[in-house]
């Protein structure tokens, strides 16, 4: 086997060094990520320049790049909080958030990659305890869920808005009350519902009775007016008209004998 000439060894060493340097210098930022540059022999964390965006970058091999996910993320927290009357409530909430891209260098410098544990989670716990403490278990269980969710979001946002974190949404996923309290609330709600249904039936029945009274009164008034407008001459005239119509009918056979007390013909039979 032929040996390599001695002059080739320096080139090989240089090539190896270049490969090592390039491997240390090449940084790829993936989709949805950003890089924070740390200059070892400079000012440290670079905060006065934009973060490294997606793609391939070359940095000095003695510097470091800390990669952050800048897409919207979700973190779920389960916690115990107290209601306004001191009852222990279990609350589960999800937080939608992302780092502030423009200030990601400051976020790294002041909070580090542990910003979720050091800032976001304590903020959501504090806000949840503050908000839930204003409400009774009945309100937490039924009508105030949306209001509580919005208030927790607003209180958490106040805490993190100057911490280089963009808060997008807070979702209250579950509120768990003590079993005895939950059963008592459900019984109370059921009784209230039954009471409302009973009141509705009473109101409906009362309206129906009033309607019948009005209809009966209307019929009575109509009959009284009709009776007052009738006299013997009108009745006799109506009788004559009816008799003529019967006599003119081709399907009738009418026999009239004498007359009645009123002077009207008496109809004995027809076919």
From TrEMBL:
Gene3D superfamilies referenced in this protein's UniProt entry, alphabetically: Band 7 domain
Biological source species: Pseudalgibacter alginicilyticus
Keywords annotated in UniProt: Membrane, Transmembrane, Transmembrane helix
Membrane topology per record: Single-pass membrane protein
Taxonomic lineage: Bacteria, Pseudomonadati, Bacteroidota, Flavobacteriia, Flavobacteriales
InterPro entries the UniProt entry points to: Band_7, Band_7/SPFH_dom_sf, Prohibitin
Annotated localization: Membrane
Domain of life: Bacteria
GO cellular component, one term: membrane
Transmembrane segments: 7-27
A Pfam family annotated for this UniProt entry: Band_7
Residue intervals of the Band domain: 24-189
This protein's name: Peptidase
């Amino acid at each position: 086997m032929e040996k390599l000439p001695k002059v080739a060894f320096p080139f090989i060493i240089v090539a190896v060094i270049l490969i090592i340097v390039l491997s240390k210098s090449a940084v790829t930022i993936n989709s949805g990520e950003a890089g924070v540059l740390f200059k070892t022999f400079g000012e440290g964390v670079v905060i006065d320049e934009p973060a490294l965006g997606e793609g391939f970058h070359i940095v000095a091999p003695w510097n470091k790049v800390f990669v952050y996910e800048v897409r919207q993320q979700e973190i779920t927290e389960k916690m115990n909080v107290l209601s306004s009357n001191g009852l222990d409530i279990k609350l589960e909430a999800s937080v939608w958030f992302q780092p502030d891209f423009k200030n990601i260098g400051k976020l790294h410098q002041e909070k580090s990659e542990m910003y979720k544990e050091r800032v976001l989670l304590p903020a959501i716990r504090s806000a949840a305890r503050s908000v839930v403490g204003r409400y009774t278990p009945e309100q937490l269980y039924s009508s105030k869920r949306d209001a509580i969710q919005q208030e927790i979001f607003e209180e958490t946002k106040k805490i993190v808005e100057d911490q280089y974190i963009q808060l997008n949404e807070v979702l209250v996923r579950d509120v768990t009350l003590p079993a005895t309290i939950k059963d008592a609330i459900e019984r109370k709600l059921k009784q209230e519902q039954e009471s409302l249904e009973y009141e509705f039936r009473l109101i409906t029945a009362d309206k129906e009775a009033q309607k019948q009274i009005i209809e009966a009164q209307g019929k009575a008034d109509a009959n009284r007016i009709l009776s007052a407008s009738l006299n013997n001459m009108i009745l006799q005239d109506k009788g004559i008209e009816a008799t003529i119509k019967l006599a003119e009918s081709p399907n009738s056979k009418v026999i009239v004998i004498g007359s009645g007390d009123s002077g009207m013909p008496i109809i004995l039979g027809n076919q």
